[in-house]
Amino acid sequence: MIEYSGADLFDLYARFKQGDDKAFEVLYRRLSPGIFNYCIRLLGDWYHAEDILVQTFTKLANSDLREQGNLKAWLYRVATNACYSFFRKRKTDLKCYERQLQSVMSDTGYDFVKELRVRKFLDELPEYQRIVVILKFYEQMTYEDIAEVLCCPVGTVKSRMHNGLKKLRTMIKE
Amino acid sequence: MKCSDISGSIIDYLLEELAPELEIQMHEHLAICEKCRNELGQMEAVIDRIRFAERFRPMSEIYPKIVDQLKPRRGERKWFFGISRNLIYALGAFGLGILITSSVDALLSRARQPERFEVRPQVPSKEPFSDTVEFYAVPAKNLIRT
User: Fold this and answer.
1) Which among A35, A43, A53 is the top mutation candidate for probing chain B, defined by the most B β-carbons within 10 Å of its own β-carbon?
2) Are A165 and B50 in contact (CB under 8 A)?
3) What is the overall mean pLDDT for chain A?
4) d(Cα B67, Cα A22) in Å, to the nearest integer?
5) B133: confidence class by pLDDT, cuts 50, 70, 90
6) What's the whole-model pTM score?
7) CA B52, CA B33: separation in Å to the nearest integer?
8) Alpha helices in chain A, H assignment, sequence order
9) Contacts of A28 (CB under 8 A, 6+ apart)
10) A137, B50: Cβ pair inside 8 Å?
11) What secondary structure does DSSP assign to chain B, as a single string?
């Protein structure tokens, strides 16, 4: 996974705001795979993940960010909030996710069984622990970045991670 | 370093995010404590299980959808000597609202029954009427102030 610096991303955003549409496309190509995978891991629903990806980038385009902050964290925060509103509406449907995976994985070399097992484990975690685990292990974010995404102290992120992994350990043992 | 300190730092140790001096202490402790070595092994297995999962790609091309959503905003033009389109829409909606409210009000007032007033004819009083003014003859002694 290629890492882009925060200043580099914000520069692209600033160029887009000045009317350079190509800069927005570059920004999308760089950040969308991570956000899309994050949403899939969090929700377990392919179509909703796509919707949230559209929502997130539309919000970015309509936003007016002035300070040169952490753009990546900002985008993940927007996606997380959208996922939370999804959680409030309904729970993940494992059967539905399985069907979606089958249709996607049929022509690629994905490990279907492993993927479903991981999905099952992640579903057992409460949302606030799942988010931390996903951001850390799938998106390779630092604790500081995760704290910025969730607007909470680094200590809270660490304790959520620790408790989440403990729970996963118990599940895997069983 | 105690076992209780280890459990809080195991994940950071596995992710190689511990400070160098803490990492050395951890090595030393793990060399002598089997319980902590077991815990480390279990945690490593958990992380390995979930870490190297697949990276997915959207089924359809998403970028055109985003561009479609942005088109109206990007294509916004100023109307009527610099007044924005949104302001004109807002004023139009406001005028339409007033028009609808007043027409509904007119319809309702027309449909409403007029109030009935009972007109009572004045009955002439039967008391004797006289134009004459009666004066009382007050005794003079009553007018004297005491």
Assistant:
1) A53
2) no
3) 83
4) 11
5) low
6) 0.68
7) 29
8) 6-17, 21-43, 46-62, 71-89, 94-105, 112-124, 127-137, 143-150, 154-173
9) A57, B63, B66
10) yes
11) --HHHHHHHHHHHHTT-S-HHHHHHHHHHHHH-HHHHHHHHHHHHHHHHHHT------SS--HHHHHHHHHHHHT--EETTTEEHHHHHHHHHHHHHHHHHHHHHHHHHHHSPPPP-PPPPPPPP-S------------GGGGS--
Report the distance separating Cα A132 and Cα B51, nearest Å: 13
Q: Which is it for the CA torsion A125, A127, A129, A130, positive or negative?
A: positive
Where is average pLDDT lowest: A149-153, B39-43, B93-97? Answer: B39-43
Contact between chains at B46 and A169 (C-beta distance less than 8 A):
yes
Q: Are B27 and B36 in contact (CB under 8 A)?
A: no
Among B46, B49, B66, select the one facing A58 at the smallest CB separation: B66
Burial class (CB in 10 A: 0-12, 13-18, 19+), B10: buried
Contacts 24+ apart (CB under 8 A), B57-61: B57/A33, B57/A36, B58/A32, B58/A36, B58/A49, B58/A50, B58/A53, B59/A46, B59/A50, B59/A103, B59/A104, B60/A50
Which is it for the CA torsion A51, A57, A62, A65, positive or negative? positive
Q: What ipTM describes this predicted complex?
A: 0.71
Distance of CA A106 to the CA centre of its chain: 24
User: What's at A50, amino acid-wise?
Assistant: E
Q: How many CB atoms lie within 10 A of CB B18?
A: 17
For the segment B15-39, what is each residue's pLDDT rounded down to a tens digit? Answer: 888 888 888 888 888 888 888 888 8
Enter the DSSP assignment of A110: -
Q: Which of A50, A58, A103 shows the shortest C-beta gap to B69?
A: A58
What pLDDT is recorded for position A65?
81
